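Quick one: structure for this chain?
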Amino acid sequence: MTSSKLISLCALCVFAVEVAAADPPGIVVDKEKKTITIDAKIAPRKLDYLDQIYPIEVVACFAHPKGEKAHETLVTIEAKPSDVHKALESLGLKAGKIADVQNEKPAEGPDVGVLLEWTKEDGTVKRVPVSQLLIAIATGKPLGKNMKFRFTGSEMVKLDPNKADETYGADKTGTLITIFPVTGRTVFQSFMTMKEEKYVKLETDKKQLPKEGTPVKLILEVGK
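Got it. Here's what it folds into:
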């Protein structure tokens, strides 16, 4: 092999590594549009090991059995929450604080729009704020068109009490976005407190959403 071909091959290898390292699996960062797109699927509302369907409390988490909130989520994801955290930081965001449940103080942090996008049977693409896809069971009305979610970052946890090492808590629970502050091991929380959780029971809007298991895109919009 000539030196010029070797140099070209090396350059190609370096380029391939850089491209591969640019975005973690299941995540696409668009710095120009300031969006993060995450591969997701419409979650099942009834899990076989449970005897009932529970109200929605989170927007996105790992699927069962890895996801702690897999029975209460709109969509499931495979992307690591800590990778989403890093992607948000790459767009200039700084994590805030999770909600103070005991003192009923809501989460703090930059507001981020959260939308769901999918391709309909006729080939058209639909993009809807997730708050419009969640309805109150009591009234049938959507959660709210302009609802934003706050980038709080996750609690760090010790998996082994005998070691000093800490782990990004959301990677353990698999929870990416919560509606109510039911866990601090998440990347996003809304402005709601546990006081609202007592009265606001949510279900997915099946009239709008595609069937369970359908691949969709979870889109985070920064600075809009």
